[in-house]
Amino acid sequence: MLLKILLVYLCVMNLAGLAVMGIDKSKAKRRVWRIPEATLFWISFLGGSIGTWAGMYLFRHKTKHGRFVAGMPLICMFHLLLAGYTYHRFFL
User: Fold this and answer.
1) Per-residue pLDDT tens over the stretch 52-84
2) Closest CA to 49 of 83, 88, 25, 24
3) Is-above-0.70 flag for pTM?
4) H helix runs in 1-92, sequence order
5) Close Cβ partners of 62 (under 8 Å, ≥ 6 residues apart)
6) Is the distance from CB of 44 to CB of 72 less than 8 angstroms?
7) Mean pLDDT, the chain, integer
8) Residue from 22, 16, 24 nearest 50 by CA
């Protein structure tokens, strides 16, 4: 049961990460109020790292910003290591 809840949470967060990158790119093109970079990082850190990282390249957004090019893969790597540890520790 806990594993199912966690998987649903991660799916929602990754879809949110993908969506905010697309929304922010659209806002950038229209030169209107933007989503703060801190918000993009928080969504990634709270579980949406794969979606946010995918959104960077799908929408070609923030791909020239070093913090994003380095930060998003690092957050994703952290999440993958945490997921592997958690699965091994609690579900095997």
Assistant:
1) 999 999 999 999 999 999 999 999 999 999 989
2) 83
3) yes
4) 2-30, 37-43, 49-58, 66-86
5) 21, 37, 40, 56, 68, 69
6) yes
7) 94
8) 16
Tokens found for residue 83: 């997921």
Q: The tokens of 38 are what? A: 């801190």
Which SS3 state, helix, strand or coil, does residue 31 take?
Answer: coil
CB proximity list for 48: less than 8 A, separation 6 or greater: 13, 14, 15, 16, 17, 18
Name residue 56's amino acid: M
Two tokens at 69? 């090019």
Query: Which amino acid, residue 29?
Result: K
Distance CA 17, CA 19 (A): 5
